[in-house]
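Notebook B, p. 112. Complex prediction, attempt 2.
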Amino acid sequence: MSHHIVLAGPAAETTKLLAYWVLAIISVAAALGMVLARKAVHCAMLLAVVMLSLAVMYAMLGAPFLAFVQVIVYTGAVLMLFLFVLMIVGISAADSVIETIRGQRLWAAIAGIALLILLALVVGNAAIGGAPKATAKFGNSNVTGLANLIFTKYVYPFEITSALLITAALGAMVLAHRERTSPKPSQRELAARRFATGHPAPLPGPGTYAQHNAADMPALLPDGSQSDLSVSTALTGGVSPGEARTALATAEPQTGESAAEADQEAGEQW
Amino acid sequence: MVTPAHFIALSVILFVIGSVGVLVRRNAIVVFMCVELMLNAANLAFVTFARMHGQLDGQIIAFFVMVVAAAEVVVGLAILTSIFRARRSASVDDANLMKY
C-alpha cells in the first residue's frame, strides 16, 4: 500500500478548509432538521447525514479506522436498528404538537442557548493549539497503532467490553421476548380465518399501475379508484391512504382537543 | 487553515443541538436519536484531541464510546418495543406508571 496521495502546500490547506465548511454546514443543518422534523423517519435519515459527515471528518482528522467504523457500525447498524424499530412501532405512534408541559420548548431553547454560551466560553478560554504534523499513526499505520494500544494499554477495558456486549444482547433478547398467551394457530385455522375475511388471495401490492412506484402509493384498481388495502397500515398509521391525503389537504386550523385528535389521525408526529 | 478549534466548535454546536432535542422531543425514538447525536459530537471532540496531541488514545476512547453506544441502543430500543407493546405508544409522556 505504498501508493497514497500526498496533499501538501497551500492548495491542500484550502481544499481542507473548503471540505470542513461544506461538511460543517451540512451536518449542522441536518442536526437542526433532525430536531425540527415532525416525522421520526425523517429524523433517522437526517441523523444518517450527520453521521456520514462526521465519518468524513474523522478521515480528515487522521482517523481512517474510526471513519470506517462510523459508517459501518453507526450508519449501517445502529441507524438501521432505529428504522426497524420505527417500522415495528409504526410511524404514527407519536405525540401531538400540543405541549404537555407549559413552556417546555421555550425553556428548552433557553437551556440550549445557556449551554452553548457555557461551552463556547470554556472552549474559548482553553488553549487549543494547532495540530502537530501528522505522523504515520494518523495515516497508513493507524490500524496497527490502534491495535497496539487496544491489546496492551487498554486490554482490560477491551475485555470488559465483551461482557457489556453479551449483557446487552441477553437483555435485548429478554426484553423483546414475548410469551405466547394463546396456542399457536394451526395451518387449518389460519386458512379458515383467511377465507372468512372474504379475501383469500394476498393483498394487492403498493404502487401497482399507479403513477409512482413507492411503498406508500396505493395501487390503482381497474376502474381507476385507489385500493386502500395495498398500503401497509404501518405507513398510514391506521387510516386509509386516501383519507390521510384528504385529511392533510383539507386540514384547517383547529383548537384544543380536536386539533390533537386530527394530528393523531393524520399520522403526523412531532 | 483548518485548526482543531474548528472541529471543537462544530462538536460543541452538535452537542447543544442534540441536548435541545432531548429536552424538546417527546417521541422516545427521536429522543434516542438525539442522544446518539450528542455521543457523536463527543466522539468528534475525542478524535480532534487525539490529533491535537499526536496520541491515539483519544481515538481508542471514541472507539469505546461507539461500542457502549451500540449496546445502549440495543437495550434501549428493546425497552421501547416492550413499552410500546404494553401501552401502544412511543411517547415519553405515556410511560408514567412510576410517577409520584
